Amino acid sequence: MAGILLFSNNKWKTGIVCLLLLFAGLSFGVDISETNNKDAFNFVHLGTFFLFYIFLTIELVRQVWSAKHVGKNVILGLISGYISLGLIGFFICMTIEMAAPGSFVGLEGASNGDAKADEMIYYSYITLMTIGYGEIAPVTSIARKAAVLIGLMGQIYLVVLTAIIVGKYIQGSALNKD
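Above: the chain sequence. Below: its structure as tokens.
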């Protein structure tokens, strides 16, 4: 629903978000039903959310980047964009683990899908923030590349976008003093 509100001033973008939400709802309905091909629907479900969060993050970054004045909404948008980047990283890692099980070492205790998802979201944010405790590690080439991508996304976001917002805030503060 937040995505619909974020894009409410653009009918084309609102339509895409509604279509993605509909697709996610349909794939969720099939996922909880008794079907033989749940893996395919899990990929569709994951892919739909992945596209939604990419679309949402791009729009958040665009709106924060183009903001003329820094206020509460811009700061909340900046925070939301960073959280969305972590979710995008989660979807990347989860897709890799679903397509090639065993791509990450340290998930042995996560036997069911929910526990594995919890571990992957944790791994995504720890990697995004470049903390990297090491209890979960990428072991395949694609998983390692994903870890590098997630770490770079986090650093570029923090360095570039946050610096721009801080610069706009300082500039706005200086204009208000004059």
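The CA atoms of residues 24 and 33 lie 14 Å apart.
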